[in-house]
């Protein structure tokens, strides 16, 4: 793990190459069930192609100067569907159709038809591949139990809390294997705590803590307002409706996006026990920010959080960007972090 202040990382994803995925299909939704048609290669060549694309993503992050790299989530169709649909008790082949909270989108989701249990490792080979191909600190992400419980149709458990706790146990079993495989950081993606804050207040912290139970590596909970490619900035709220509550989790870090929504960072006072992973790249803007612009965003974060408690990152949803733009933004971010680091000594 980096020992200098203001270490840099990514939220998780990085652009998948055009030769690997149908990016036009990818851009239309964030799938909850599997989207095998997204992949351009036949099954017999897919793993090798994903390996090659993963190495490209890792090397891009290293060239940009990222301190804590990921595998770019290259093997995933979305941040959550690959893990969620690999569990016992989940029927992803015969999905339910639900109406999105906006009321105008019909979304296929997995059905929970029996006891949810982890059959075996899902992301373990991804972590092993990442560890073999970088000597930098390595992070891997998992979908959070609360979010997965909201992205499925519960047809088995008495209530959604019982489902979330079963999912938390499955996530925890996976996370423990990822830790053994050399993960330095394990992150849970929990965007739906903002979508449904009243339900989240009932049991999200309990489920998150169960998912992170017993881990000794650095742990993160990530929140967002929706991918810039799918949710325009004009439709984003001005603040998080479920944030202060995360101070009660056992996670070491809380990850938020702040650049595109122009978040008032005064809210960070409610997370006094946590390190903050701060989004400083606006992924809704196709232009590559200049180093001074990103440096100012980092300095703004330092008005509310000490340098020892600040990790520098982009906003989320980098997979939807053109690769050259994503790389340029990461390079500007790393150079900006170095600039501010030199200022604070």
TrEMBL record:
GO molecular function, one term: 5-methyltetrahydropteroyltriglutamate-homocysteine S-methyltransferase activity
PANTHER family linked to this entry: 5-METHYLTETRAHYDROPTEROYLTRIGLUTAMATE--HOMOCYSTEINE METHYLTRANSFERASE
Organism from which the protein derives: Bradyrhizobium macuxiense
Secretion signal span: none
Name recorded for this polypeptide: 5-methyltetrahydropteroyltriglutamate--homocysteine methyltransferase
Domain Cobalamin-independent methionine synthase MetE C-terminal/archaeal: 6-338
Top-rank lineage group of the source organism: Bacteria
UniProt GO BP: methionine biosynthetic process; methylation
Transmembrane helix is among the record's keywords: no
Cofactors, names only: Zn(2+)
Keywords: Metal-binding, Methyltransferase, Transferase, Zinc
């Amino acid at each position: 793990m980096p020992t200098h202040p203001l270490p840099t990382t990514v939220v998780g994803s990085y652009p998948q190459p055009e030769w690997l995925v149908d990016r036009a299909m990818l851009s239309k939704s964030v799938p909850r069930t599997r989207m095998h048609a997204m992949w351009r290669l036949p099954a017999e060549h897919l793993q090798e192609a994903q390996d090659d694309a993963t190495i490209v993503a890792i090397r891009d992050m290293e060239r940009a100067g990222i301190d804590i790299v990921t595998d770019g989530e290259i093997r995933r169709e979305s941040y959550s569907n690959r893990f969620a649909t690999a569990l016992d008790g989940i029927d992803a082949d015969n999905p339910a159709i639900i109406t999105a909270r906006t009321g105008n989108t019909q979304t296929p989701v997995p059905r929970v038809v029996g006891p949810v249990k982890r059959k075996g490792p899902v992301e373990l080979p991804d972590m092993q591949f990442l560890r073999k191909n970088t000597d930098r600190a390595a992070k891997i992400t998992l979908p959070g139990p609360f979010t997965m419980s909201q992205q499925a149709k519960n047809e088995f458990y008495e209530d959604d809390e019982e489902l979330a706790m079963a999912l938390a146990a499955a996530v925890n079993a996976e996370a423990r294997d990822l830790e053994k495989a050399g993960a330095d950081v394990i992150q849970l993606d929990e965007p739906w705590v903002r979508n449904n804050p009243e339900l989240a207040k009932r049991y999200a912290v309990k489920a998150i803590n169960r998912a992170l139970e017993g881990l000794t590596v650095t742990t993160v909970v990530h929140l967002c307002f929706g991918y810039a490619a799918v949710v325009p900035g004009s439709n984003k709220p001005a603040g998080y409706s479920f944030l202060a509550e995360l101070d009660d989790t056992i996670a070491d870090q809380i990850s938020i996006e702040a650049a595109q929504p122009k978040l008032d960072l005064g809210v960070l006072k409610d997370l006094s026990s946590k390190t903050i992973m701060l989004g400083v790249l606006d992924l809704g803007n196709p232009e590559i920010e200049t180093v001074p612009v990103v440096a100012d965003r980092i300095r703004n974060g330092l008005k509310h959080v000490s340098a020892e408690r600040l990790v520098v990152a982009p906003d989320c949803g980098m997979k939807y960007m053109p690769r050259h733009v994503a790389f340029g933004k990461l390079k500007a971010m790393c150079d900006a972090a170095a600039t501010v680091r030199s200022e604070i000594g």
